[in-house]
Design a protein that fits this description.
alpha/beta; 2 domains; 7-stranded mixed β-sheet; 4-stranded antiparallel β-sheet; 9 helices
């Protein structure tokens, strides 16, 4: 590939055209049919959220989101003076009817959702729930930001089609990324939306950073166009399945009487509810002292003080077992 690289300059405001064409073909496998002019290359999905908050949302706007949610752990929207309004979930995903109870907040509101292998709970929104959510948001005229960065990380079977496939009116901004599937350091993601919105946000992005790395975009293009990306995903899914089974067995062996959890169907995370009433801060500090790093649930929702987010994606298998073993001992001692 190095021999093919010409001198690098700034890319087009929307990003490398050949990469956007390749992403169009990739999205077709998910049932999303769009054009390169409706895609903006971004430096990861987080930058897409930053551009949306600056370029599309007004101060004081309400962002509906799952509760708990990854967004509660970010200060970005709060610093932009947005109001975060959590919606409850069950094992089928976000409960759409709860939107009707927030009528006073629906003016200038947008919904942010991670329907596929949700962060932090790992929940997979069912197809029927997705259809219901789209129907209610269309009726209430609530735009949707669909974050699908974990969508390719299924283990047992492919997930239901993205919300974007049900979008009749261009009301869904769809976010994807290579950060979770390929390399976080590559810093390549994309946003799909109406051309007018993409044009506005691409101008804002150019004012912010003059575009995402040309080299990273060309590397991403090579992964998509060579067929290596799908091959890589198959390997990742095999590894995730092995790691999930190791984590599930360790939880059963060491936390069976101390906590409860559900087996994730994909993604990185297990949402664990500790049976004992205890302060998350104290548990986090004790675990850290024992060499175990975990994410306490209250960073994703204040009331989730009995929950922990465990990841089985990064650590070596032996460390997954040992970490859960130590966690069990710590909870018992507290």
């Amino acid at each position: 590939m190095a021999a093919q690289i010409t001198p690098l300059s700034y890319e087009e405001p929307r990003g490398n055209e050949r990469l956007r064409i390749a992403i169009c073909r990739y999205l077709e496998t998910k049932g999303i049919y769009t054009s390169p002019s409706s895609i903006l290359i971004v430096s990861g999905a987080l930058q897409a959220l930053q551009l949306i908050s600056i370029g599309l949302l007004r101060k004081g706007s309400t962002i509906f989101l799952e509760r708990p949610s990854y967004l509660f752990s970010l200060s970005m929207f709060q610093s932009a003076e947005m109001k975060l309004s959590g919606l409850p979930m069950d094992d089928a995903g976000l409960i759409p009817n709860e939107i009707f109870k927030l009528k006073h907040q629906k003016e200038s509101a947008v919904l942010y959702t991670i329907p596929t292998f949700h962060n932090p709970t790992g929940i997979l929104m069912r197809e029927k729930r997705r259809i219901e959510l789209m129907r209610i948001c269309e009726k209430e005229q609530i735009p949707i930001i669909e974050d699908n960065v974990y969508g390719d990380l299924w283990i047992d079977m492919p997930p239901p089609a993205p919300l974007k496939t049900l979008d009749k009116y261009g009301s869904v901004l769809y976010l994807g990324s290579l950060s979770k599937t390929l390399s976080p350091g590559l810093r390549i993601g994309w946003m799909v939306g109406p051309e007018s919105v993409i044009e506005r946000l691409s101008d804002l992005k150019m004012q912010t950073d003059y575009g995402s790395s040309s080299l990273s975009q060309r590397v991403a293009l090579e992964w998509f166009s060579s067929g290596l990306y799908e091959e890589h995903l198959n390997n990742v899914r095999e590894q995730l399945k092995i790691r999930r089974e190791v984590a599930m067995q360790a939880l059963t062996d060491y936390l069976k009487r101390l906590a409860s959890w559900c087996e994730p169907k994909g993604g990185f995370f297990i949402w664990v509810k500790v049976s004992k009433q205890m302060q998350n801060k104290h548990l986090f500090e004790r675990a850290l002292a024992e060499g175990v790093l975990l994410n306490p649930g209250n960073i994703y929702a204040k009331e989730a003080y009995q929950y922990l987010r465990l990841s089985y994606a990064f650590a070596p298998i032996d460390e997954i077992k040992e970490g859960i073993y130590r966690l069990g001992k710590i909870i018992q001692s507290m």
